[in-house]
Design a protein that fits this description.
Elements (H helix, E strand, L loop, with lengths): L4 E3 L7 E2 L4 E2 L4 E8 L4 E2 L4 E11 L4 E2 L4 E3 L6 E3 L4 E2 L4 E3 L2 E2 L4 E2 L4 E2 L4 E2 L4 E2 L4 E2 L4 E2 L3 E4 L4 E5 L3 H14 L8 H4 L12 E2 L3
Parallel strand pairs: 1-4, 2-4, 3-5, 4-6, 5-7, 6-8, 6-9, 7-10, 8-11, 9-12, 10-13, 11-14, 12-15, 13-16, 14-17, 15-18, 16-19
Antiparallel strand pairs: 1-21, 19-20
């Protein structure tokens, strides 16, 4: 059976809060700080090998989504953020209650405002700033219209309820053994 990969990189290891759920083949690697009630779904990759990934409470990172960063540019997700299937967030900031649609891409130093939606398949270019409560779509992404900020938030709430029926992520004591961050080979820890 495939199991969640949780790995230290360069002496930095992931940390997460209470009541999180990690799918069996999710990958969570490096300097990651994740809040309470988050879910990381099948095939999703969170890789913080050169800077940090900071994730608030009640976020869901859906199947095949990817979060990465660049040296000096962390990836930051606020509270109640949803990343759709196959979405990519690279060294960008996603504010509270925002939704990044399926297969959308948000590039370096972009900001997605509170309660905003990036439509499926959109590409938000580097340094783009999306205001609060806005819908953006297209390649490159462009402003479409103002929206009710609660629309995006409803997706995050749905996944928070859904994950409660599934097994929780292990406690950090099980995964992050004391020698993990000092291992010269960054030993891979798996459940079992």
């Amino acid at each position: 059976m495939t199991e969640t990969i949780i790995k230290a990189v360069n002496g930095k290891r992931p940390h997460w809060g209470d009541h999180c759920h990690f799918a069996e083949n999710a990958t969570i690697v490096g300097d990651i700080s994740m809040g309470d009630d988050c879910s990381v779904w099948y095939g999703a990759v969170l890789r913080a090998d050169v800077d940090r990934i900071i994730i608030g409470d009640r976020c869901n990172i859906q199947d095949l989504a990817c979060i990465h960063q660049t040296a000096g540019r962390p990836a930051i997700l606020g509270n109640d953020v949803s990343l759709g299937h196959g979405a990519v967030v690279h060294a960008a900031t996603i504010h509270d209650g925002a939704l990044i649609g399926m297969n959308a891409v948000v590039l370096d130093l972009a900001e997605v405002g509170e309660g905003s939606i990036v439509a499926a398949g959109a590409v938000v270019l580097e340094k783009t700033v999306i205001g609060p409560g806005e819908l953006w779509a297209g390649v490159p992404a462009r402003f479409v219209k103002k929206i009710d900020p609660d629309k995006a938030l409803s997706y995050a709430r749905h996944y928070c309820q859904y994950k409660q029926s599934l097994s929780p992520a292990p406690t950090e004591e099980v995964w992050n053994k004391p020698d993990a961050s000092t291992s010269p080979v960054n030993k891979l820890y798996r459940r079992g």
